[in-house]
Specification:
Blueprint lengths: L1 H16 L12 E5 L10 E7 L5 E6 L7 E7 L2 E5 L7 E7 L5 E6 L8 E6 L2 E4 L8 E7 L5 E7 L4 E8 L7 E3 L7 E5 L5 E4 L5 E4 L2 E4 L8 E8 L2 E8 L4 E7 L6 E3 L7 E2 L4 E4 L2 E4 L2 E5 L8 E6 L5 E5 L7 E7 L4
Antiparallel strand pairs: 1-28, 2-3, 3-4, 4-5, 6-7, 7-8, 8-9, 10-11, 11-12, 12-13, 14-15, 15-16, 16-17, 18-19, 19-20, 20-21, 22-23, 23-24, 24-25, 26-27, 27-28
Keywords: Signal
Protein name: HAF family extracellular repeat protein
Length: 331
């Protein structure tokens, strides 16, 4: 994971940092809209990380005010709310959101015994997801339309290796998915319950009890998957020396195809709309660049089923502002 994070962050900063006001003229119908900032948080650091695809969103707010906590922010219609952190946790990060508005959350700084905890959040507040037997700490990664949550569990005291966990909606006991590949790491959860994995042996999809490996693109050393939807995977292909990367999608596990104009692909929605860096594609065909209205950095993180892309912009390198991108052409 550290190698993947280093490569993807470096690639994103390189590609996005070059995007400036001129990008808007090539936006092909995309328009950026600023999200409202809650009172008392002016000058803070914001990011929109998830959406239910119906006009509600979730993200984070960080305000340097002596406490230095990262808070959950939810945008519901015209209302913007900073949600009080659960328990004694200091930082809360939304990881995914389903069409019913259920948000999968990872909180940390919670206690000396279990600093990391997985939760779901909805109109009724936070709901802690139990750790499987033999583990203390948990983190959430994704939630699908059925309300199933994918995550990880570990025990930092004993040093036991991480394991993949699936919390099925309405079932008390979590399912532990045993590793079958070296450094197997869960990445995303598909609508049908299939799990997308990364590993030292490459990317793979676990469908029931069958592990389906993804073909690595020709000429690349390694592939890093980012998301899966309806069996279609998006991600990044990497060459180690000289270092370069490219956005890819897998309409089937054995048919990797390049996505032009970006170094990485990060998310895909139900209709096949893909986002990566500040570019978008549908079924492999470009649907235009996302405009960056400032000289600073911009980041697009998630695309909802309504076609809205969410993220943040940095107008002055001293703050980040939550934004969404909407395609006025309806493409």
């Amino acid at each position: 994971m550290p190698l993947r994070a280093t490569i993807l962050v470096a690639a994103a900063v390189t590609a996005v940092g070059l995007a400036g006001p001129g990008t808007a003229s090539a936006a092909a119908g995309w328009q950026v809209e600023y999200m409202p900032i809650p009172g008392g948080y002016d000058g803070g650091y914001f990011s929109v990380l998830t959406t239910d695809g119906k006009g509600d969103y979730a993200g984070t707010a960080f305000l340097i005010n002596g406490t230095s906590e990262t808070d959950l922010v939810v945008w519901e219609g015209a209302r913007t709310t900073v949600v009080r952190n659960p328990g004694f946790c200091t930082d809360v990060y939304p990881k995914d959101q389903n069409p019913s508005g259920l948000i999968a959350v990872t909180a940390n700084g919670c206690s000396d015994v279990d600093s990391y905890r997985a939760y779901t959040y909805d109109g009724g507040g936070f709901h802690r997801l139990p750790a499987p037997d033999g583990y203390r700490q948990t983190s959430a990664i994704a939630v699908n339309p059925a309300g199933d949550v994918l995550g990880r569990a570990w025990d930092s005291v004993s040093g036991d290796p991480d394991t993949t966990v699936l919390w099925r909606h309405g079932v008390t006991t979590p399912v532990v998915i045993a590793d079958t590949m070296a450094s197997q790491t869960p990445v995303d959860l598909d609508d049908d319950g299939s799990v997308l994995f990364d590993s030292e042996e490459g990317a793979a999809i676990l469908r029931g009890t069958t592990l389906v490996r993804l073909t690595n693109p020709a000429g690349f050393d390694r592939s890093y998957p980012s998301a899966i939807r309806n069996g279609v995977v998006v991600g990044t292909a990497v060459v180690a020396e000289p270092q370069r990367s490219a956005a890819y999608w897998w309409p089937t596990p054995t048919t990797p195809k390049a996505l032009t104009g970006a170094t990485t692909a990060t998310d895909i929605n139900a209709s096949g709309l893909v986002v990566g860096d500040l570019m978008t594609w549908r079924n492999g065909v470009s649907t235009g660049a996302l405009p960056n209205p400032n000289e600073g950095l911009a980041s697009a993180s998630f695309v909802g089923d309504d076609g809205t892309v969410v993220g943040s912009v940095d107008p002055d390198y001293r703050t980040t502002i939550p934004v969404k991108w909407v395609n006025a052409s309806g493409r």
